[in-house]
Design brief:
GO terms for molecular function: mRNA binding. By secondary structure, the chain is an alpha+beta fold. It has three helices and three strands, in the order ααβββα.
Length: 81
């Protein structure tokens, strides 16, 4: 199992404790590109995908609802670019 697969699996199994940097890295693995953000927020977009991922850094983790949005994208794109 590769590092990327381990990261995506860890996010899917524990959405209540996803680290902010792990979420950003996972979005990049899924083909999303950092699009901006101010302060504690980072936004990611993917060409052809109407849903934008927006992560908020709350003491090193992201809120569970943002983790669920990321998990939906992991399931949709299967971890492939």
């Amino acid at each position: 199992m590769t590092r990327r697969e381990k990261l995506l699996e860890a996010i899917c199994t524990n959405p209540k404790a996803v680290r902010f940097e792990d979420a950003c890295q996972a979005a990049k693995h899924l083909g999303f590109i950092h699009h901006g953000g101010k302060g504690s927020h980072r936004a990611f977009k993917r060409k052809g995908e109407p849903v934008q991922l927006n992560f908020q850094n709350r003491q090193g983790t992201i809120p569970p609802y943002q983790a669920r949005q990321l998990i939906a994208m992991i399931r949709k794109y299967g971890g492939n670019r």
